[in-house]
C-alpha cells in the first residue's frame, strides 16, 4: 500500500523578490512524499494566489486523494487517475511529480526513460532581476552582466526606464521582460517600439489574461509569450494569433504529465516554448528540466534566488542548469 504525506515548508529568499503583484521574502512551498515498500517519491509545488490557491487549500486538495493511494493499481496507473481526480494546478503538480519519482525508483530507470523522451542536457537558464527602481535594477544588471540571459520583472509606469538602465548595465546580455499582466494596450503600443530599440527579445504576458484578445489586433515585433493565459493543453486554442510562445510551468499544468502533453501540442500548433518556474527549491525545478530541450528560453532560476537549497541540489554552473541526479529526483 502507498502512503501519502504532505507538509508545508518556508525557504528564505536571498533578500526579497518583487513583481507587479507584490514582494515576498520567503518561498512558501508544499511538499509531498509518497512511500511504498520502502521507496519514497517526492514532489514540490508553490500555491499561487493569482489562481485562488493557498497553502491550506492545496494541502486540503492533496489530502482528499487518500483513497486514490489505497488503489492496488500500478504507480503509473494511479498517476493517470490523478489527471482527472484533481484539476490542473499546484496540488496536482506536487503529487504528479512525486508519482513520477516513485515510479523511477521502483523501476530503476531514469525519469526521461520512463517518459520516453531524450535525456536532457545542461541548458542556459535566465536569471531574474526583481522589480525595482531603474537605479537599483541598473546596479543589479552590472552585478549579473556576465549572464547571457536576464529576465526583468516589470510593472507598467517607468518600465522603459528600467529596461534602459538594465541594458546600460548589461550591454551584452539577452533581455526578456515579464509584465505579469501589468500593462494595458496603450502602454504596450507606447513601449514596444522603445523595447525593440533596446534589443528586448521577448515580452511575457503584457496584458491581463482576460484582456489579451487585444494582442491579436496589435503589431508584435517582439515575440509575446503567454504565461497567465496558458495553463494546460486545453488553453492553447484561445492563444492563436495573440501569442508567439507559451510559458510552461508545472504549477500551472498540474505536473509533468500534462506539461509534456502541452509541450508537444504547442509545438504542433506553431508556438515556441519557454520553460518557467516559481521561486522554489531544486526539487520543484528538477521535473521542469525535462522540458528544456528545444525550448527558446529556459527560466529555471528559482533556487538561485533562495538563501539556501535542498541537499543534492541541481547543479547551477557557468549560467547553465543541469538535469537532476537521482538522489534529488527522478
| Tally of strands | 14
CATH superfamily of the largest domain: Enolase-like C-terminal domain
| Form type | globular
- Helical coverage, percent range: 25-40%
What's the CATH C level of the largest domain? Alpha Beta
Counting helices, strands and paired strands, the structural category is alpha/beta
Cα-to-Cα separation, first versus last residue: 21 Å
Proper CATH architecture of the largest domain: Alpha-Beta Barrel
Largest β-sheet summary: 8 strands, parallel
Report the radius of gyration as a whole number of Å: 19 Å
- CATH names the topology of the largest domain as TIM Barrel
The helix/strand order is EEEHHHHEEHEHEHEEEHHEHEEE
Mean pLDDT: 96
Widest beta sheet: strand line-up? 5-6-7-8-9-10-11-12
Q: Can you tell me the residue ranges where pLDDT is under 50 for at least 5 consecutive residues? A: none
Amino acid at each position: 500500500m502507498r502512503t501519502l504525506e504532505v507538509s508545508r515548508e518556508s525557504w528564505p529568499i536571498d533578500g526579497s523578490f518583487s513583481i507587479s503583484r507584490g514582494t515576498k521574502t520567503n518561498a512558501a512551498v508544499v511538499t509531498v512524499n509518497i512511500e511504498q515498500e520502502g521507496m519514497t517519491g517526492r514532489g514540490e509545488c508553490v500555491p499561487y494566489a493569482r489562481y485562488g490557491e493557498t497553502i491550506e487549500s492545496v494541502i486540503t486538495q492533496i489530502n482528499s486523494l487518500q483513497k486514490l493511494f489505497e488503489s492496488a493499481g500500478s504507480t503509473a496507473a494511479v498517476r493517470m487517475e490523478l489527471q482527472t481526480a484533481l484539476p490542473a494546478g499546484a496540488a496536482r503538480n506536487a503529487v504528479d511529480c512525486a508519482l513520477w519519482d516513485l515510479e523511477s525508483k521502483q523501476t530503476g530507470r531514469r525519469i526521461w526513460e520512463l517518459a520516453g523522451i531524450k535525456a536532457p542536457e545542461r541548458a542556459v537558464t535566465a536569471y531574474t532581476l526583481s522589480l525595482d527602481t531603474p537605479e537599483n535594477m541598473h546596479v543589479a544588471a552590472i552585478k549579473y552582466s556576465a549572464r547571457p540571459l536576464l529576465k526583468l520583472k516589470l510593472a507598467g509606469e517607468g518600465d522603459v526606464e528600467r529596461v534602459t538602465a538594465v541594458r546600460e548595465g548589461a550591454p551584452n546580455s539577452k533581455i526578456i521582460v515579464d509584465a505579469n499582466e501589468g500593462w494595458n494596450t496603450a502602454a504596450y503600443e507606447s513601449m514596444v517600439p522603445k523595447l525593440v530599440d533596446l534589443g528586448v527579445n521577448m515580452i511575457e504576458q503584457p496584458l491581463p489574461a482576460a484582456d489579451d484578445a487585444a494582442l491579436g489586433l496589435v503589431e508584435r515585433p517582439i515575440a509575446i509569450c503567454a504565461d497567465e493565459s496558458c495553463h494546460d493543453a486545453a488553453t492553447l486554442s484561445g492563444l492563436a494569433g495573440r501569442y508567439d510562445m507559451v510559458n510552461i510551468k508545472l504549477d500551472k499544468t498540474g505536473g509533468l504529465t500534462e506539461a509534456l502533453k502541452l509541450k508537444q501540442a504547442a509545438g504542433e500548433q506553431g508556438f515556441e516554448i519557454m520553460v518557467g518556474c516559481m521561486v522554489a527549491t531544486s526539487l520543484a525545478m528538477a521535473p521542469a528540466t525535462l522540458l528544456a530541450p528545444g525550448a527558446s528560453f529556459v527560466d529555471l532560476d528559482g533556487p538561485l534566488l533562495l538563501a539556501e537549497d535542498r541537499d543534492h541540489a541541481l547543479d547551477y554552473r557557468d549560467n547553465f542548469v543541469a538535469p537532476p541526479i537521482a538522489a534529488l529526483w527522478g
